[in-house]
Structures are given as structure tokens and as C-alpha cells.
């Protein structure tokens, strides 16, 4: 069985060491760096399954690291930050992160979120291997194994969670998914306060799908969302 490798990038060395300690107890292999430049180099030189990034780092901040990662890779990204407002969390999700935790944080909660993201990726990989090789919905063509999407012949760049939401709805055309349904199936966690997270991802997904011209994701008021081809 291949080992699972997690990148930890935080300029606060004590925090990075604490995260590494707890993840190693779970059996994960960790690569720990303390600036954004080293984080990008690590991603380009060895396989990474999940990245935990502090936002405020020297050389490159977490946003820039995420931007460069998303040009080629789809691993889950968890942001860590002392910024705790809803706007800061939304900004992090819009920039391409899959999750956002504020400092100080409970290390065991972070481990639980890491486990949930990795478990979900494994489930989606297994699902893709047994599903149709291509799903078409109107002008959309979804390639589950490659985790790519074409819109009217042009490839569009989606974050892993944006892809997962679109793929979920495309596999069940016309079905209406509540925000709770989407959060629990895509994030693999209990809902609690996941509504804003789902709304942010739906909004950015619609923008990338050119919703000013194409109406793929329909809101069913008071119920949820559905995909129309």
C-alpha cells in the first residue's frame, strides 16, 4: 500500500511540529516546510496527497502557493489562519482551498478533517473507476477519471471541491440537492454550519460555468440546487 504524504507549510515552527506529531501518529508521512517557496518546490518534486498551508508565510503566501498548485494538481488543501471572520474564510475558499481552520485550533480536529478529505478522495476515485467514462450535460463534458471538465469544447479550471459538487449533481440529473446533502456527500462530514461553505462553492462554480450566459445550476428556492443540461 502506498504511503500517504501530507505537506505542512507554516512559518511558525512550533505549530508545524505539533501538526506533524499528530499526523505521524495517524501513520501519515509528512513533509514540513516553513515558507511558500519551499512548499511549491515540495509539490513539484514529490507526490503530495494533501496540503496544509498557513496563509501568512514568507516568500509566497498561502494564496499564491494554492494558485500555483491548482495549475497542475488536485490534492485537497486546508488553510490555517489567525484570520477568523466569515469574509476571511470565504476568501480562502474562493482562492481554491477545500477547508479553512482558524488559529488556535484543536490538533485532533485538524486530523479528523484530514482523514475526512482523504477518505472522500478515495471514495470519489473508486466511484470514478466504476462510472461512465464521460458524463455529458448540455455543453458540459465531465471526465471523472481525469477530473476535468470541458465547457463547449474549452477546458475550465475547477478546484477539487467545485469538481466534486458538479460531478455529484451530474451523476443525478434533475435531482435537487440541499446544501446539507452536498456538504455531507462532498466534504464527508456532518453538516453543522456548512451552508456558507456550500454557497461560496456554488457561486464560484456558477461563475466558471459562465452562468451569465448558461444556466446549468438551478436554485430551487427553499430546497437546494439541481443541474440542468
Automatic annotation (TrEMBL):
Domain OmpR/PhoB-type, residue spans: 132-229
DNA-binding residues: 132-229
The keyword Transcription belongs to this UniProt entry's keyword annotation: yes
Gene3D superfamilies assigned: 3.40.50.2300, 6.10.250.690, Winged helix-like DNA-binding domain superfamily/Winged helix DNA-binding domain (1.10.10.10)
Protease recorded as keyword: no
Assigned keywords, A-Z: DNA-binding, Phosphoprotein, Transcription, Transcription regulation, Two-component regulatory system
Modified residue annotations for 4-aspartylphosphate: 54
Name listed for the protein in its UniProt record: Response regulator transcription factor
SMART domains: REC, Trans_reg_C
